């Protein structure tokens, strides 16, 4: 029965069965064991905690501190302005454009990648000749470096690039577009590139999840006369739930922080007009290129708060069952 | 991930800031050291320059460092080439906040050097490099703050229009245009032979912004521009006029299609690529363009045959000086607490001999008198003549006004190019950025 445990973890292994609480007994032996346990916990976690505090918590604190200053990175910050930088950000139409673009990427990724990845994963989960090859091909874009993908699509989608040339020669000249120059189109072009890049990740996650769906259930369904579709709908999908939810979570956080492919594929002018900016590219453009370090830090804090709140809400309402005991409290 | 990366660099900065504050006690005013103090004790200098790509520029700096060490064995120089944007936007500001900046580093002059001097980062070279500054002449002013010299340029040139002589001939254009009306006429003739009249790398923002700078240079008096650079006030109506003139010019459709996404240089789809590979007839660009055109040209020999250069045309009846030009350069500065040998090395870099060698690499125009013989390329020679003949050289406006105003100004100009900006908004953006 262990294989039917619905608490699937990230890449498919079954989680350990929950351990029942032992009744507390006070004896010298127990006390020594408790001491040893704490010694182990402290000894093993200290290095990680130090690194985490030094490189995550402390910098976050400093980012917030600097965000309260009007500071251009020359000399120590002295010009305290309170929350002015935050107000300025929400008054800048380009930042609002960046927020809109992030929303497009978050929901676009979920709505397009999810169904596509699920369909492909279900297909690739059947046995057929060349299955390994197809699995590999589906995953290749995800393995490529972001910058490589960005430059590749930038060249393919340029005015005289392969995509337009292909459309021309196929007699679809009417579809030729300024993919990266049309200010209304560019964010959708980028969404396509992002989808192409990351759908492989969703597929591999779902395939891992599928391998954990016990064959016995499928066989039982087959004996009951269920069709392939019915099996997928009533057995596979429900058991894939945890995997799908964790993918949604990762996809959402990744989309909120989208940076590298957009930075490389879309030129500075198009970004600065708001057509392709995201919160992260806006932060770098303003923090480093306009040398507004205090302001850039304020944008970084906003980006962090949005990601953090989104993560909390998602965990609270959707991931609750999957991570019970690990984050939300003790398992009963 | 972006947050974490950003945050950790902020951490590094904050630690170094603390160190800086702690280590700020020492170090008095620097004066010219006596001759017998120099080159007595062994010193190691760290040198950050922006010739990061393998090529003649990088090789030449390595040779210069080695030669200096042979000349003065007590001085060892560690050279590091860093990509310009990384160097200027992140590495250098972070290092300057720390207690251990590089001794000698790239300096772009203008608004940036003013900020660096105000933060007390730089060594005053006025006394020690008196003779060299005199030999360089007015170009050295860009690296001056309140009459004191804080950096020395090694490259300086004005911008103009690089053009394809063959196309001009085919279109029946007898001589390069000298006025805006003639330029408009040239554009029409080039359209008639079905080539792109002017390539512009608006995707990178600054190549587009430089068109506005030139219209501002023609619309504004030199005094207005000088005052704008120091006071950062932009109330003169000439700045709005520059945008109106630019808008009128863009409306004549002289540029390639979808220029808003065309990069400036470095790849075949860029504006550089269009000119170098015979697709466009003209491009507004600085003196470094020869080198960058070379790298994207499919046929270098053909490029060398057809490429020519002429100054930016004058506008009839405008208050600006028709002989004034926009330009800029590259220089080096020494950190506040660098040893005096650092200044000696700077002086060595701008000595006529080393400058001549620099000119021979073909990567830019030298600034020191006596190095002119190193310029062999005919297009570069015409720039050198025009630079010498210019009545006034205005530093690139984004450099002159500093990164913050420069960036806001360029963004607003690009909006005009994209068709959703206005001349007034450019000035508003500049004023708003001055307050940021």
Automatic annotation (TrEMBL), chain A:
GO cellular component terms listed in the entry, alphabetical order: plasma membrane
Major subcellular site: membrane
Pfam family of the protein (one): BPD_transp_1
GO BP terms in the entry: transmembrane transport
Transmembrane portions of the chain: 38-66, 103-124, 136-156, 185-208, 246-264, 292-314
Membrane association type: Multi-pass membrane protein
Gene3D superfamilies from the UniProt entry: MetI-like
Keywords (A to Z) from UniProt: Cell membrane, Membrane, Transmembrane, Transmembrane helix, Transport
Signal peptide (UniProt feature, chain positions): none
Subcellular location per the Swiss-Prot or TrEMBL entry: Cell membrane
Comp. bias (Low complexity): 12-21
Highest taxon, organism lineage: Bacteria
Coiled-coil residues: none
Span list, region Disordered: 1-29
Similarity comment: family membership: Belongs to the binding-protein-dependent transport system permease family.
Name of the protein in question: Sugar ABC transporter permease
Species annotation: Micromonospora endophytica
From TrEMBL, chain B:
Superkingdom: Bacteria
InterPro entries assigned: Bact_solute-bd_prot1 (IPR050490), SBP (IPR006059)
Descriptive protein name: ABC transporter substrate-binding protein
């Amino acid at each position: 029965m262990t294989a039917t445990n619905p608490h699937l973890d990230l890449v498919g292994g079954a989680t350990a069965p929950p351990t029942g609480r032992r009744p507390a007994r006070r004896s010298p032996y127990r006390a020594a064991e408790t001491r040893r346990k704490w010694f182990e916990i402290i000894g093993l976690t200290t290095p990680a905690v130090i690194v985490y505090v030094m490189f995550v918590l402390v910098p976050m604190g400093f980012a917030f501190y600097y965000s309260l200053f009007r500071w251009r990175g020359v000399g120590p910050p002295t010009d305290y302005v309170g929350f002015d930088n935050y107000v300025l950000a929400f008054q800048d139409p380009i930042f609002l454009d960046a927020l809109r673009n992030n929303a497009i990427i978050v929901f676009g990724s979920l709505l397009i990648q999810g169904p596509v990845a699920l369909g492909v994963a279900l297909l690739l989960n059947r046995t057929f000749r060349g299955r390994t090859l197809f699995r590999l091909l589906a995953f290749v874009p995800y393995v490529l470096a972001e910058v490589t993908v960005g430059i590749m699509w930038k060249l393919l989608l340029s005015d005289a690039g392969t995509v337009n040339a292909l459309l021309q020669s196929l007699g679809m000249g009417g579809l030729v577009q300024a993919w990266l120059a049309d200010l209304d189109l560019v964010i959708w072009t980028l969404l396509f590139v992002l989808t192409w890049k990351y759908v492989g990740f969703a597929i591999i996650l779902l395939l891992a999840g599928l391998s954990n769906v016990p064959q016995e259930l499928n066989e039982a369904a087959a004996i009951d006369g269920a069709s392939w579709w019915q099996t997928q709908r009533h057995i596979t999908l429900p058991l894939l739930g945890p995997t799908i939810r964790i993918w949604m979570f990762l996809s959402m956080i990744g989309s909120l922080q989208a940076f590298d492919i957009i930075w490389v594929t879309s030129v500075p002018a198009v970004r600065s007009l708001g057509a392709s900016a995201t919160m992260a590219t806006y932060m770098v453009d303003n923090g480093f290129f306009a040398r507004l370090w205090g302001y850039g830090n304020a944008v970084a804090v906003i980006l962090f708060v949005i990601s953090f709140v989104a993560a909390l809400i998602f965990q609270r309402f959707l991931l609750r069952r999957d991570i019970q005991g690990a984050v939300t409290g003790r398992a009963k | 991930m972006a947050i974490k990366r950003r945050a950790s660099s902020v951490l590094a900065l904050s630690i170094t800031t603390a160190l800086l504050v702690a280590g700020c006690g020492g170090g008095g005013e620097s004066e010219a050291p006596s001759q017998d103090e120099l080159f007595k004790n062994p010193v190691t200098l760290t040198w950050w320059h922006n010739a990061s790509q393998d090529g003649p520029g990088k090789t030449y700096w390595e040779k210069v460092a080695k030669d200096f060490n042979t000349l003065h064995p007590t001085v060892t120089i560690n050279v590091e080439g860093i990509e310009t944007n990384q160097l200027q936007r992140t590495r250098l500001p972070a290092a300057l906040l720390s207690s251990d900046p590089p001794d000698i580093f790239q300096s772009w002059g203008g608004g940036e050097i003013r900020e660096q001097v105000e933060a007390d980062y730089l060594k005053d070279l006025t006394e020690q490099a008196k003779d060299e500054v005199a030999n360089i002449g007015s170009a050295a002013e860009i690296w001056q703050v309140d009459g004191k010299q804080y950096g020395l340029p090694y490259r300086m040139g004005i911008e103009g229009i690089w053009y394809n002589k063959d196309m001009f001939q085919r279109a029946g254009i007898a001589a390069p245009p000298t006025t805006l009306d003639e330029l408009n006429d040239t554009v029409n003739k080039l359209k008639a032979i079905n080539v792109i009249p002017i390539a512009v790398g608006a995707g990178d923002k600054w190549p587009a912004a430089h068109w506005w700078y030139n219209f501002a240079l023609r619309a504004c008096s030199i005094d207005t521009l000088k005052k704008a650079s120091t006071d950062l006030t932009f109330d003169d109506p000439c700045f709005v006029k520059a945008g109106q003139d630019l808008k009128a010019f863009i409306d004549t459709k002289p540029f390639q299609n979808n220029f808003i996404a065309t990069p400036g240089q470095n790849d075949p789809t860029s504006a550089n690529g269009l000119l170098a590979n015979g697709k466009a007839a003209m491009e507004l660009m600085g003196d470094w363009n020869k080198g960058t055109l070379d790298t994207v040209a499919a046929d270098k020999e053909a490029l060398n045959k057809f490429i020519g250069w002429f100054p930016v045309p004058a506008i009839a009846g405008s208050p600006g000086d028709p002989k004034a030009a926009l330009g800029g350069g590259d220089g080096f500065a020494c950190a506040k607490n660098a040893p005096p040998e650092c200044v000696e090395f700077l002086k060595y870099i701008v000595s006529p001999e080393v400058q001549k060698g620099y000119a021979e690499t073909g990567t830019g125009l030298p600034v020191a008198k006596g190095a002119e013989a190193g310029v062999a390329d005919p297009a570069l020679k015409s720039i050198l003549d025009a630079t010498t003949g210019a009545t006034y050289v205005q530093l690139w406006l984004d450099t002159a006004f500093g990164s913050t105003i420069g960036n806001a100004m360029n963004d607003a100009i690009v909006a005009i190019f994209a068709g959703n900006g206005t001349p007034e908004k450019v000035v508003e953006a500049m004023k708003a950025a001055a307050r940021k």
